[in-house]
Every structure is written in structure tokens, then in C-alpha cells.
Amino acid sequence: MYTTGQSTDQIDYAGGVSIERYYKWIGQIVNHYSDPDLVNKKCKQYTGGREAISNILYSVHVMDTQVNQLCHGVIVSPRFVVTIAECAKKTKRIMVYNGQSFRNQESFVKAKVHYEEWNNKLALIDLGRNISSPGSVISCLWNGRVVQNFTKVLSLRSGSLAEQYVSHVQYRPGSPLQVRYRCPANQQHVWNKTFGDLIGVKVAREQRPRIAGLLDGVPPCDMFDHFYNRQRTAEAISLQQYLPWIEDIVWRGGSG
């Protein structure tokens, strides 16, 4: 950015921000609104157009070389998983539980990872091949059109399924989700401290919540918080602001 100096012949540098490095991001945002219903179209495609989506939520565990769970993730297409970027950098293996038992699982070796370049918080893991029976494990994404009841979907460390409970979630366009919940008094020792727990939102005529965000950190409950059943606030990444990036790689690129 430049300004005029003491005369019209004098130009002084005033500072500013070059938009050149953000050109691709701006283009993605602008182009996103050319097809605002892409998320809904893909949701219907994956679920067979059923109004009532299965209310069972299956777990995706992102693991390291020692088969330790690093993060949770969400399957958004037959071959793509969204998870936290820090976990994706360390992961070597992805486990997808597509049934009510650990015997119903698929193991994937990380094929390729796409990192979003805006603030390096999210990653898309390309599994390299399609999941078996993807319609039963794919989660629909939320496009931010209607705000109804939010649900914190806490995947269990000791099981392949997930439990759900409603929390107070503050939603502001373009900002992280603020999730307020009580630290459960009866879970001092089994409280899940894995990154990437899912935030869902209930949509009319759909039993299963659409995924609106991922917890970006460990739930901040200590021993006394559990004992006194205190309320705490955690921050979650809002997937809505990353939809152009997700759509560009997963669907517009023809992979999903």
C-alpha cells in the first residue's frame, strides 16, 4: 500500500498486506458460493437419499507406529478422512470401525495427506482406496444454513461406537465453535483425552447429526472439575469455514 507524500511527485510506502498469497483462498471462497448445496447433494448421494440417516456413529482412530490412538477423525467420502493436522503428521495407520464390534474394522495405511494452508489446523487424509460399505460410515457435513441443537459426539476410547450428549455450543460464522459442557463426575478415569472429538448438529428429519466441528485440544477437565461436576468451555474447529477447501480436494477434484 502506498500513499502520496508532501507533493504528488512524492510517494511514500505506508505498509499493508499483499493479497497475492491469499489469491487461491479468496478464489475458493468465491467459487464456493457458486454451488452452495454441494454438501447436501453429496450427503444424499452417500446415504441413498434417505430422510432418516442411521443414528449410529462409527469411530475413526488415527494411530501412530506403536498403534497408539492419536486422534479421532470423520469420514467425509468413501476415501477421505478429516482430522487434526498435528495428528495427521504423526499418523501411520487409520482404523475404521464399521460395526458394533472390534472385529468389524478396516485398517488403512496413510496414502497422502492434504494440509489446509490457512492456519494449519486441519488435514485431509487420502486413504488410497475406498472404504467397504461407505454409505454406513460416512458422516454428512453441516453447511451452516440452519442452527438447531448441537451435539458433542464423544467417541469412546474403549469401544468402536460413539456416545452422544447435547452441550451448549456457541456458533459464530467464521469463528471457532465454543463448546460448554459439564465434566462428568462418574468418568474421572475414563474421560477421553483424545483430540478430534466431533461436534454435530441436528438437522430436521435426520436422526444422525451432521458434523460441524472437531475439538482442537484436550477437554480441560481436571480431577476437581470431575469431582464437583463443574462446567468448562472447550474450543472446536468449525468445519463450515473450511468447506471450500474440503470440497475442492474431495469432490471437485473427482476423488470423492
From TrEMBL:
It comes from the Eukaryota. Gene3D superfamilies: Trypsin-like serine proteases. InterPro entries: Peptidase_S1_PA (IPR009003), Peptidase_S1_PA_chymotrypsin (IPR043504), Trypsin_dom (IPR001254). Residues 58-136 form the Peptidase S1 domain. Belongs to the peptidase S1 family. CLIP subfamily. This is Peptidase S1 domain-containing protein.
